[in-house]
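Thread: quick sanity check before group meeting

JM: Hey all, I'm pulling together slides for Thursday and realized we never actually wrote out the predicted structure for the chain we discussed last week. Dropping the sequence here so it's in one place. If anyone has concerns about the input, flag it before I start.
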Amino acid sequence: MKQHLSNVAASVRQRLLSLSQKRGEEFQSLLVRYANERLIYRLAVSAHADDFILKGAMLLYAWSPYPFRATQDVDLLGRGEITAGRLADVFRGLCTMKVADDGLIFQSDSVRVSLIRQEDEYGGLRVKLQARLTAARIELQVDVGVGDAVTRPSLIDYPTLLDFPAPRLRAYSRETSVAEKFHAMVDHGLENSRMKDFFDVWALSREFAFEGAALASAIASTFDRRSTAVPETMPLAFTPQFAEDPTKLKQWKAFLVRSRVAMEPPAFRVVLALVAEFLQPGWDAARTRSQLRSSWPAGGPWTYLTR
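JM (edit): ok, ran it. Output follows.
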């Protein structure tokens, strides 16, 4: 049995190495992505599947045949009562559950849970754990948020790197993902260092179509749930003060290097202008609670419907 397990793990490692060389991706990053994929597979086939919704940058792999940018973490929205103790039990259980052999050993004794976003009214918990593939140790991180509103979550088959069963689980809609990122832009103001949000919304608006009513509804629900007023005037994030701030420009350049983005964006100020153009009709409709009868084709601009 040990020889069989060793052979499967060695085969998986070699296939991932070949894939990383073919794609020109860092092997360690691909290892993390593979381990994340198999971890959410275990979650998807567990008794806890309905308690979590996939969100965050991992969804970029599900929405596009190529990733917009690299990511190392899993983001989930927890439903119901999510405590540190319960979350630790859930993930320790995932580590030991029996599934089709994918070469990975998730170490249940490595599971640690800590509080994150302590200033956030709705809180969140961070799970850290380790997995092994042959001799390779893989550090994993899962952030679990609570309390957020989700517009039209969908059931998706998450794409796999190799020919193992695909995780089927509920996931955020693109509209909800955009709404949460817009909320962060508004909420953090000039202190915002989350350059990934600007890039992601720009990339999503370039690659995908959106319905105005769905986007406005997602923005309204997100701001309501977080007890934040939808802005009446242009948010600071879309002003020259933000676009020309030396610290923001430095953070933007560092993000592009660190994230190994697959889509080359224009200058930072242009990205901000394009994001504002995409978002403004949605936030105006969300603020006034009016119907946004419009559609956004991939790349824009908004097309307004007439009766």
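AS: nice. The chain has ten helices and ten strands. The first strand starts at residue 52 and ends at 55.
JM: adding both to the slides.
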